[in-house]
Amino acid sequence: MSRVVIGVDLGGTNLRTSLISSEGVILDKHKEATRASEGWGKIVNRLIQNIERQQEIAIQKGMSVVAVGVGAPGVIRVDKGIVVKSPNFPDWNNLPLKHELEKVIRLPVMIENDANAAALGEQWRGAGMGIGSMILLTLGTGVGGGIVLDKKIWHGADGMAGELGHMTIIPDGRKCGCGNSGCLEMYASARGIVQSYEDALGVSTTGMQSAITSAQVYQEARNGNARAVKVMNDMGCILGIGIANLINIFNPEMVVIGGGVREAWPLFIDFTRMEIKKRAFEVPAARTHIVPSKLGDDAGTMGAAATALQGAGWN
Amino acid sequence: MSRVVIGVDLGGTNLRTSLISSEGVILDKHKEATRASEGWGKIVNRLIQNIERQQEIAIQKGMSVVAVGVGAPGVIRVDKGIVVKSPNFPDWNNLPLKHELEKVIRLPVMIENDANAAALGEQWRGAGMGIGSMILLTLGTGVGGGIVLDKKIWHGADGMAGELGHMTIIPDGRKCGCGNSGCLEMYASARGIVQSYEDALGVSTTGMQSAITSAQVYQEARNGNARAVKVMNDMGCILGIGIANLINIFNPEMVVIGGGVREAWPLFIDFTRMEIKKRAFEVPAARTHIVPSKLGDDAGTMGAAATALQGAGWN
User: Fold this and answer.
1) Residue B53 belongs to what H/E stretch?
2) Using a CB-CB distance cutoff of 8 angstroms, which residues of chain B are in contact with residue A288?
3) Fewer CB within 10 A of the terminal residue: chain A, N end or C end?
4) A160 and B281 in contact by Cβ < 8 A?
5) Nearest Cβ partner of B241 from A132, A168, A287?
6) Which one, of B172, B56, B169, lies nearest residue A245 by Cα?
7) Cα–Cα dist B82/B261, whole Å
8) Of B269, B268, B272, the residue nearest B245 (C-alpha)
9) Distance of CA A211 to the CA centre of its chain
10) Smallest Cβ distance to A244: which of B159, B168, B278?
11) Cα(B254)–Cα(A242) distance, rounded to whole angstroms?
């Protein structure tokens, strides 16, 4: 009987659950709304239902599920399978998610941070296949990061390593939600891009919902709007400063850029590369492949599956 | 017969050679001038003489040397034992140092970058004893770095990881010799401190040998000279931005600060800690011990010895 795993990507918006072979082939996938506001009890129940559904599908296919991996946003104690806290789930305080799932599912469950899971997914079956050292930057609403060294996630002493969106780029720059000023996230995220465009227009939406979206800024730039073009070029430069730092620090084989901002790739990447060339050491800069993510929305479940396989000692 | 190793710290100024037990006790040490300008042939011969002298001392003590480790400045191919290039030894281009030494010494020789060796030394028998993840910053003429993860040096794809002095702190700041602008090294090194003091005085020595030394700046600050005090405070803040980045990236257990600037510790460390508190995530910031190096001038030979032991499969 063929052995498979289940990878879960528990996002603030979507809950994705995939049945994945030990070779990294997605055999079935399901997506539904997370409904984070319903509280942890209901969400955990929904997680269990989704996992059980994939278990049934596996049985129908004549396969046996050997482990489950879950990627969740926030601070995760990977060793204990605890969600310490999560920006998307305010009532999750030291939630023993591994334990809650294992007592019903009766399979080994591994919990991982969502950005780390996405990084591992890209390394296992995405842009970084065969690559040992890889840094993932997800440019979404915020900027997340995952560090893969020797094909494994570097978690750090508290499981909080890889907060790459909170490198200081402009010491006296924009105030970030994390308490710092001038974080990469404040310029290279979708939100940061919208703010830069609003700054360029001379409008301010501080404290209000912005009237424009990042997708509109990209479209304006594609249409040749000089302000929007400059916003995207400047964003590319700031991203380049951050990546140049990561290159000088890690000398990695690859940097993968994921998240929704990746859609605007041609609008910023030349400026990113130019800045890297200007700022990073020549040999490691030439070595590092800077590429867009390949798995897109499947990176999280794929990485959760890889986590499950690593946890089960299979990978 | 007790087994020992020899650790060599080949600096631009001094050549240090120590006989070190497998428990990390220095049994004998010797220091002499490197005389870098004499060219690689003479320096390699002197290296061999120093190693052979320690071998003889070991024999007199009834001990047997089982391996040699050498820390050298510059880009090192650790796997092949080649010095690719070195700022201190302009005629060392792809020098197969391991091979050159092994053919005479007839012992396994491991080559490591000097900052990495110092980091490993501090982790093995210095400030970071028992610590798994540790970042070393050496604030000397320049700023060097070494990254210890899971008790091993992270070398990166080309052996060039850990160039922590070349993180960008001030994107449009001082022009650095590496080609970048605003590198940590331009502010937190002895040279950077002198430049900041000259800037504060309104004198410029660009292209000239500076008339003042970093030690004089520290002394002025200790004497209460307001300009010198401010220079040291500002240097502390900039160092804090760099360390906050490293904390958000690595979530390490410890950051060790070595190099000559460490002598001025009380003049900058409060500002460094304040900046870290302001900029890094709370949990990893509270976790990270920020400490001065403990081994001082012995860090390099101690780490070279650790490299030799790791290479020989003993550690």
Assistant:
1) helix B40-60
2) 157
3) N
4) yes
5) A168
6) B169
7) 30
8) B272
9) 26
10) B168
11) 23
Q: Quote the CA–CA distance of B136 and B120 in Å, as a whole number.
A: 9
The mean pLDDT value for A278-296 works out to 96
Q: Which two tokens stand for residue A44?
A: 């955990």
What residues in B contact A162, CB-CB < 8 Å?
Answer: 249, 251
| Dist CA B304 CA B310 (whole Å) | 10
Identity of the residue in B158, B164, B252 whose CB atom sits nearest the CB atom of A283 = B158
Segments of A140-288 assigned E as strands:
143-149, 152-153, 254-258
pLDDT of amino acid B209: 65
Burial class (CB in 10 A: 0-12, 13-18, 19+), A301: buried
Residue-wise burial string across A201-236, b where 16 or more C-beta atoms lie within 10 A, e elsewhere: eeeeeeeeebeeebeebbebbeeeeebbbebbbbbb
Buried b / exposed e along B222-254 (16+ C-beta atoms within 10 A): eeeeeebbebbbbbbbbbbbbbbbbbbbbbbbb
- pLDDT value at A195 more than 80: yes
Matching residue, tokens 């510790």:
B265
Whole-number Cα distances in Å, A213 to A141, A190, A193, A197, B44: 11, 8, 9, 10, 63
Q: Give me A302's structure tokens.
A: 């794929």
- Would you state the structure tokens that stand for residue B283, as one six-digit string? 């949990």
pTM of the predicted structure, to 2 decimals: 0.93
A41, A309, B72, B124, B134 from B150: Cα distances, Å: 37, 22, 23, 12, 9
Q: How confident is the model at residue B74 (pLDDT cuts 50, 70, 90)?
A: confident
A78 at interface of B, judged by CB pairs closer than 8 A: no
Q: In what order do the strands lie in the sheet with A109-113?
A: A26-33, A14-21, A2-10, A63-72, A109-113
DSSP state of B182: S
* The pLDDT value given to residue B315: 62
Instruction: Tell me the one-letter amino acid at B85.
Output: K
Mutant choice from A82, A151, A248, A253 vs B, greatest count of B C-beta within 10 A: A248
Asked if the Cβ–Cβ distance from A180 to B284 is below 8 Å, we say no
Q: Which of B161, B180, B251 sits opposite A250 (nearest CB)?
A: B161
Q: Is B252 at the interface with chain A, CB within 8 A?
A: yes
Per-residue DSSP letter, B174:
P
Contacts of A186 (CB under 8 A, 6+ apart): A173, A174, A175, A176, A192, A195
Q: Is B131 on the interface with A (CB under 8 A)?
A: no
List of long-range contacts for B198-204, beta carbons under 8 Å, 24+ apart: B200/B227, B200/B228, B200/B230, B200/B231, B201/B227
Q: Which residues of B touch A250 (CB under 8 A)?
A: 154, 156, 161
Q: ipTM of this model?
A: 0.93
Cβ–Cβ gap A251/B147 under 8 Å: no
Residues of B with Cβ-Cβ distance to A283 under 8 angstroms = 75, 158, 160
Contact of B293 with chain A, judged by CB distance below 8 Å, is answered with no
Average confidence score pLDDT of chain A: 94
Return d(Cα B147, Cα B168) in angstroms, integer: 18
